[in-house]
Design a protein that fits this description.
Blueprint (H helix, E strand, L loop, with lengths): L4 E6 L2 E9 L4 H16 L7 E6 L12 E8 L11 E5 L2 E9 L2 H16 L11 E5 H5 L2 E7 L2
Antiparallel strand pairs: 1-6, 2-4, 2-5, 3-4, 3-7, 6-8, 7-8
Length: 151
């Protein structure tokens, strides 16, 4: 199945997040489950916009130093329990967005294909993390979006 790219401008977001440090892999899912449990306890899951943000490039960062943030968008007036979860800001911008089946094989293939697709477009990647974006509807249908920052 050929991946389709659409370009979208993402806004700035306030995020609550759980960070995992170490090699990318199964521990990323543990961070995401921890975040989703927290979001469910705070009644955020039904309308949740969730991001998975690998902060480091594993080809240039030692695996044990790679950071992965599992994030959920929160409103500006949401009262965050200090200490239970961290908070950060996501600075938006222009992104190439790819809808991907949320299976290990499909995501691995997408990570290979997106660079060629962008290279063959009129766009250029920005030096910010590529993010995985999920909505409750996408999660229930086993999809996610890979959002690639553009200049």
């Amino acid at each position: 199945m050929e991946m389709k790219m659409r370009v979208e401008t993402l806004p700035n977001y306030r995020l609550a997040y759980v960070r995992k440090v170490g090699p990318y892999g199964n521990e990323n899912m543990e961070a995401m489950e921890q975040l989703k449990d927290w979001a469910a306890r705070n009644n955020l899951m039904s309308s949740a916009l969730i991001f998975g943000i690998p902060q480091d490039n594993p080809t240039i960062t030692l695996p044990e130093n790679c950071r992965y943030d599992a994030c959920v968008v929160i409103t500006n007036d949401f009262k965050l329990d200090v200490g239970s979860i961290a908070e950060t800001e996501f600075s938006g911008g222009k992104y190439a967005v790819f809808l991907v089946k949320h299976t290990e094989d499909a995501i691995q293939q997408a990570w290979i294909d997106i660079f060629t697709i962008i290279e063959n477009s009129n766009y250029q990647m920005d030096n910010k993390p590529i993010i995985e974006r999920y909505t409750a509807d996408m999660i229930s249908h086993d999809y996610c979006e890979l959002c690639v920052p553009l200049i």
